[in-house]
């Protein structure tokens, strides 16, 4: 049996000439360039069109110490650009530089607005010397403000290095309830440059609390508060008659009571 093998011959088209290929590439580049130019024109139009210029700022949140006039005067001159180009970081900083503003969250609202959430400082104490016009907020941060704008002027005075403001506030919050057990109200708490604690009461009494962390200072204060009433009664006085106390002794404290001329230099538990 004879079998025939048929073969099929497939011919590939000849390669395009170089000039044809160059024309195709050139056409593609022209199309891409035209599309890019159109996109650029549209973007340029959007960036410069007045409809996208920032025309309104919606402020919400804590605005107890700021109004439309103060915000416009302090913030608007620092805002540059349109809805698409305004720097939100710069805008946030502009709001946070306004007195009493602790934090600002800034968002875009299409097509030409900014939305801002403001969080104000909540003052809990004066900080430093009165001439400095500075306060401490609930987070232990120091900030400057006009004391005349305080809702509550009966605040304690805290002093110390600025970097230790949160620590000083925490110490005050721990010690104040301990003194209040004896109807003694702390007016001033100071952390000196040498790391020693000093307190002054509203009745004029001054106390040297010594150095140490919260637990160490608290132990010495409790030694005083747990025995002061008993010691005062021994001399016919109340705890509010306290004039001064030095808690830096190892196993006791030295104190002075109003109306008592002489008193043992140390009184232990």
In short:
By secondary structure, the chain is an alpha/beta fold. It contains 6 helices and 12 strands.
Fold and architecture overview:
This protein is α/β, with parallel strands linked by helices and 269 residues long. The chain has 2 domains: 51-120, membrane protein fhac (Ubiquitin-like (UB roll)); 123-257, 3-Layer(aba) Sandwich (Rossmann fold). It has 6 helices and 12 strands. The strands form 2 sheets. It has a 9-stranded mixed sheet, covered by helices on one side. The chain has a 3-stranded mixed sheet with strand order 1-3-2, with helices on one face. The chain is elongated and about 120 Å long.
Question: What does the secondary structure layout of this molecule look like, with pairings?
Answer:
Elements: H1 18-48, E1 56-61, H2 68-74, H3 88-96, E2 101-109, E3 113-120, E4 123-127, E5 134-137, E6 142-144, E7 157-159, H4 165-180, E8 186-191, E9 196-201, E10 206-211, H5 214-225, H6 228-234, E11 242-246, E12 254-257
Radius of gyration: 37 Å
How many strands in all? 12
Alpha-beta classification: alpha/beta
Give the mean pLDDT: 85
Largest sheet, spatial ordering of strands: 6-5-4-7-8-9-10-11-12
- CATH architecture title of the largest domain: 3-Layer(aba) Sandwich
Shape type:
elongated
Number of domains: 2
CATH superfamily of the largest domain: Cell division protein FtsQ/DivIB
- State the helix count: 6
Order of helices and strands: HEHHEEEEEEHEEEHHEE
Question: Alpha-carbon distance between the termini?
Answer: 127 Å
């Amino acid at each position: 049996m004879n079998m025939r093998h048929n073969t099929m011959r497939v011919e590939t088209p000849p390669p395009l000439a170089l000039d044809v290929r160059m024309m195709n590439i050139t056409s593609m580049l022209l199309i891409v360039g035209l599309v890019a130019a159109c996109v650029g024109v549209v973007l340029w139009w959007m960036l410069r069109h007045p409809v996208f210029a920032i025309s309104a700022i919606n402020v919400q949140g804590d605005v107890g110490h700021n109004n439309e006039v103060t915000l416009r005067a302090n913030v608007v001159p620092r805002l540059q650009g349109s809805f698409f180009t305004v720097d939100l970081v710069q805008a946030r900083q502009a709001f946070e530089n306004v007195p009493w503003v602790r934090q600002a969250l800034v968002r875009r609202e299409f097509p030409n607005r900014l939305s801002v959430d403001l969080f104000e400082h909540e003052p809990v104490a004066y900080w430093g010397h009165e001439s400095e016009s500075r306060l401490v907020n609930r987070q232990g941060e120091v900030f400057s403000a006009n004391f005349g704008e305080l809702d509550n002027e009966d605040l304690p005075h805290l002093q110390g290095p600025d970097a230790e403001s949160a620590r000083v506030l925490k110490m005050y919050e721990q010690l104040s309830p301990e003194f209040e057990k004896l109807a003694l109200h702390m007016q001033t708490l100071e952390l000196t440059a040498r790391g020693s604690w000093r307190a002054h009461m509203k009745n004029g009494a001054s106390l040297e609390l010594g150095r140490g962390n919260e637990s160490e200072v608290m132990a010495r204060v409790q030694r005083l508060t747990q025995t002061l009433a008993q010691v005062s009664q021994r001399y016919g006085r109340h705890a509010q008659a306290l004039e001064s106390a030095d808690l830096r002794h190892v196993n006791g404290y030295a104190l002075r009571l109003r109306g008592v001329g002489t008193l043992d230099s140390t009184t232990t538990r």
